[in-house]
Write a structure and sequence with these properties.
Elements lengths: L12 E5 L5 E5 L4 H8 L7 E8 L6 E3 L5 E7 L2 E7 L2 E7 L5 E4 L4 E6 L3 E8 L4 E3 L8
Antiparallel strand pairs: 1-2, 1-3, 3-10, 4-11, 5-8, 5-10, 6-7, 6-9
């Protein structure tokens, strides 16, 4: 069955690109992320497109081991903090329309300077979230 053209609200439904190039629109529920793995075979080869708005630092770090993540600034001002091979690197993102490519396997978090809205295009298979990345100095 072909995907419903829409329009859709990215606040209530996310777009998922399947490995064959087809798209799926999935409504956001309280169990949205666990459902992704169950509904899409551990999310193998899939890409999630979603929008997030935040005003405070993310409570966790995340990593995507199976692909680079595209992070596009719609509005705001934030530091994306990358942690790889024992080194932390901060990338300031404060020019709407700019984007960052987070390399696969690199832990990252955000620390906003103001209300920030970003669009994420995420290869979700194997995504991990932790309070701190492995080896991160306390």
């Amino acid at each position: 069955m072909p995907v419903e053209a829409g329009p859709h609200s990215i606040d209530s439904a996310r777009a998922i690109l399947k490995p064959d190039g087809d798209a799926v629109v999935k409504r956001v529920t309280d169990n949205f992320y666990p459902e992704l793995d169950a509904d899409f075979g551990d999310f193998h080869g899939h890409v999630l497109i979603q929008r997030h708005e935040f005003t405070s630092a993310w409570p966790t770090w995340e990593v995507h081991p199976h692909g680079d993540e595209f992070v596009y600034l719609l509005e705001g001002d934030t530091d994306l903090v990358l942690y790889d091979a024992g080194e932390e690197r901060t990338v300031r993102v404060n020019d709407p329309g700019s984007y960052v490519m987070v390399p696969k396997g690199v832990w990252h978090t955000a620390r906003p300077h103001a209300r920030t809205v970003m669009l994420f295009v995420t290869p979700g298979e194997g995504t991990e979230n932790r309070e701190l990345p492995p080896g991160y100095p306390r």
